[in-house]
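$ fold --in a.seq
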Amino acid sequence: MTGSKSRSDPVSAEARSPLGRARAIGLAAALAMLALIQLAGPGISERLFDSYQRWAPARPAKALAHVVLIDPESLASIGPWPWPRYTIARLTERLAQGGAAAIGFDVTFPEPDRYNPDQLAALYPELAGPARDSLMALPSMDAVFAEVIGRNPVVLARAGLVAGSTDYEVAAATDAALLPVEAQFTAPLPPGVGSFDRALSNIVDLDDVAAGHGLINGTPDGDGTVRRVLMVANVGGVPTPGFALELARVGQGIATIRPVIADGGLSGVGLGDTYVPVAPDGRMRLHFGPMPEKSVTPAHLVLKRGLAPGRFRGKFVLVGLAAAGTADVVTTPIEDETYGVYVQARTVNAILSGDALIRPRLATWGESALGLALALVSLWLLPRLRLPWAAILPVGLALALLAGSWIAFRGHGLLFDPIRPIAIAGAAGVGLLAALFVEAVMARQRLAAALDVERLNAAKAAGELDAARDIQLGMLPPVDRMTRLHPAIDLDGLLEPARTVGGDFFDAMRIDDRRICFLVGDVTGKGVPAALFMALSKALARSALRRGPADLGAAMTGLNDEISRDNGQDMFVTMLVGIIDATTGEVLLCNAGHENPILVHADGRAREVPLEGGPPLCAVDAYPYMAEPIRLAPGDGLVIVTDGISEAQSPDGDFFGHPRINAALASWTADRPAGDAGTALLRAVRRFEAGGEPSDDLTVLALRFRGG
């Protein structure tokens, strides 16, 4: 019994080692995906959350925000912006008389009114006497507006500024730390909250009498989309509320704002009985939705009266500019363009309804941990499953994560990113399966190599030439694989060995999504040495060219050096290599002592393409081969042959030659598949030989450019 166990242990360990390697590769793929997602940033997640908002826009229970829009019709009716402060004062009075709970101006008034009496008098220096005295005796427009502001719950905007921003130098005259802030914060704002050195504020006459002041900064995310609205920030070291939060505070008659701190960072702000979740930087993630039409009123209608009584009663009114040329145009998750005042109005509704979106602080870590956990489960479970469960379970799990993310958003306003765990676990699964596939391929290759050795040994004993010929044909790319390389390229190849084993070969491979590489080669000599040298040449050529060389000529020079390195038999190989751009028809050709290619136009006209080329590979060390370009029009074809065609002999000893090649290709027009070129040449050569024994391998590679 002990001896039996001893014999089975090494076998079991060896059987487990490929799976262990595959699991290690799968885990490495999961970690690489995690690092890639971290480097890529939140872009994919944000776009998913944007889609959620488009599918289920917000419809707040308390739509108390009302926008009075200074729109093009209002500008045409009242006059261009900026309006006289007297007009804005009348607008404010009308809103207050309508019962507005609070009135917020989503514009700043940093300069005195240009219609003030002293400003008008300065415009007309010739005005004198009683007329000038009467004009100067009038109250300033700013004083009239300030008197109205002082009697009503008005919130004025200000914009926080950092060094280098627009208006930063203009704001230097005002000490940001001395700007009035009516909101009383129950605690200082913690580190991490947004901070501004200065602020663009209103003139002192207005600022000193306003019921509140709020910041209107709306910095978009990196892709230019506004997803978050500032709730609180420090201006010159002084805690200051955002515009929407201040409007909600003034309208509800609340004096204090409570910063809520968790783990040393800001997690929310309290306003009366309302809790507003915010990120550590002091911004709230807004759930966007359409602005109801009944919540928007053009400013000129307010000034002209005639509106239904109580239209603004109990409303939080925001006055904003929405005309051509305004800079306050933003992109949101549900709109390519909208006005900033609409964003502020939606924010007021979200504050009053408690309808903000929540992205927990540790959400990213949790999603990454979940992804790694699922990756480990996948690495353990997938090898134990059989189809179809090996496909059903991962797909079902991904759908479950997507559904859970949607339910969390719809039901609780929680933002859970399912893409991160799906991508991490998916990378682990793909890495595992790819590694197992590679292990299987390597095992088959080992078996194939062993089979090739057996075939060679058998050839020595019972027919070396026939076995080597089979190996030679088996190394050529299958026709069905060549036809699938690119839809714009029709590619086919044909190789008819002579009685003895030869050294002809062809190959084709896809370099990238638009380039195809093809080649035809012919090794000097006959028999098994030529076939083996052909195998070496083909393998090295495929290795050198499938990486898509930037310089085809340099790649051929490097291939020449590689093949020459172990060429103890002093053999050489002719080769013609081409790279075609399937989108343009551009072809780069490099000829190493081979037959020139034949260009066949769409109507069947054929001609030889003369190439300068160079000597066969292995003939001259370090020869500087050069690539030569041609262009194929849609419908044109390119045919490459070996000397087994051009030097085929008739019973009289004549050579087949290029004129007969061109004549045989005349029937290969644009409507015929690539394979017809090789068939036509094979039939013509065999008729020319009239039953005689072929002197060499017959090889044809035909390519038709269908068009990009």
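$ fold --in b.seq
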Amino acid sequence: MAHLLGAERLHLEFPTRTVFDEVTLGLDEGDRVGIVGRNGDGKSTLLKLLAGRLEPDAGRVTVRRGIRIGMLDQADTVEPSTLVADAVVGGIEEHVWAGDPKVRDILGGLLADVPWQGRVGDLSGGQRRRVGLAALLVGDWDVLFLDEPTNHLDVEGIAWLAQHLKRRWAQGQGALAVVTHDRWFLDEVCTDTWEVHDGIVEPFEGGYAAYVLQRVERDRMAAASEAKRQNLMRKELAWLRRGAPARTSKPKFRIDAATQLIENEPPVRDPVELNRLAVSRLGKDVVDLLGTGVEYPHPEGGTRTVLRDVEWRIAPGERTGILGVNGAGKSTLLGLVTGAVKLTSGRVKRGSTVRIATLSQELAELAEWADERVSAVVAAQQRSYTIGSGSKAVELTPGQLLERLGFSSQQLATPVKQLSGGQKRRLQLLLILLQEPNVLILDEPTNDLDTDMLAAIEDLLDSWPGTLLVVSHDRYLLERVTDQQYAILDGHLRHLPGGVDQYLELRRAGEGSRTGAAATRRSSGDERAYRDPGTAGPAAAPALAGADRRAAEKELAAIDRKLEKLQADIRAQHEKLARHDQSDYVGLGVLGDELAGLEASVADLETRWLEVSELLEG
């Protein structure tokens, strides 16, 4: 396995602390590394050091000659006046990128809703971020460093990115290092994990799930070691008091298998007990949406229907995740539940005991406390908060809740406005929970939180007995804290017994080959879909019309599907060649001939793709 780059004894200090001390690590061909750790511990800094964007105070980073390194930084921006097309494929001839299946896949996966001839400055923040990611992925890199690439991607986009990165290089080639709080993504893509903490980088084998098991075992061994050390020190102190010479011994620890760590653990939640508590607190009725619909005025006249004929009876103790693309109507649906949105048809029935609270994205709950210290905010709340029930009930003070959510005693004296984004998010959740609502709505709760804090919040929600409604693009969180999922598709609310996987299948079935369709529109210059609204001049009239045009579009979509299948066959053929006995020249020749045939088929299809595109372009 060839070595690509390495860091030797890296040392980096900021004015207030040491970020890294004597860190040595490396990336080899085939490495797929996820980087985790608390916010502020240096994950993004590590990427910048390895990519050469930041110089260490001591130590060095060495890169093998000829290696091409690409990086997506959180601070990376595209010049606002640049056209999207120029930002993504600028400098590449159209017939080159349009005939490249990889480029068409990237455009369809990330930029299906982005005007191809629009200005970057006219896009939303999320769209600009996706343009930057697409521009990076279009390039040919040996090593990719990605800092929070899943930000601004929905569940569908995250699933696409995971599949793209898994098939981007042949097995055993290329290297990837990614910083993300999306734990499903880490498990899906990464084969190794680096944990950044206390000035060091600690490696673990496997993705997020394997990392958690190994970390639990590490902490258990550390606790056992510390207990034995303390016991040993007490004995040594007794010997010293008697004047005996000091004696030491090196304890050895038994390492249990990871499965033994969790075999006696109870389920994360007791649904029967939580439902019983929820019913006693809420009564039988929560919120019922009965044939509800919502319409908004359209800017060009008339109305736009967002939701139609929604039937949803929310039960006490229900834990539901809501899925849907941006603009599908998720916020509108939650607005019907809270009463913030006015319906245009049907009716909403609310129980008399319902108390709804929303963890919003705007941190509005903290605005009035901006200049107050955290301790003052906590002191203004109720004295205690009870989680669990019966013999399992635990009464916590607000201070203990803060500690459970990762606040240190020193941070209690910090003004709210000086807290980090993640700390504000946790304080916001605390203030809401202390109001003791019985219906809690979480709107993108994972913003600004690292994996440890997400786990802490999930642990807190496990013992919360109310009704929970969650809107999030974080697949791991949805599957972790909710028991069922619904999706908004074409204005209707649909139950998903198969969960997120079923939602992705429905989206694929509904859009057909979204990659092929999006790439077709881009390469054919269909300005109806991609012309910037501010661009003057009519689109060129297509040469084909009616049935001929539909037939050409169908052929183009079919070619896209065939190209994707052939590319997968070529990758499989390369793997066969790599595994085959290298001394068997006859067998290698047969496999080589098969590979040449597949590549010839790809060339023929790409030629035909260009011909049909030209017909559609006129």
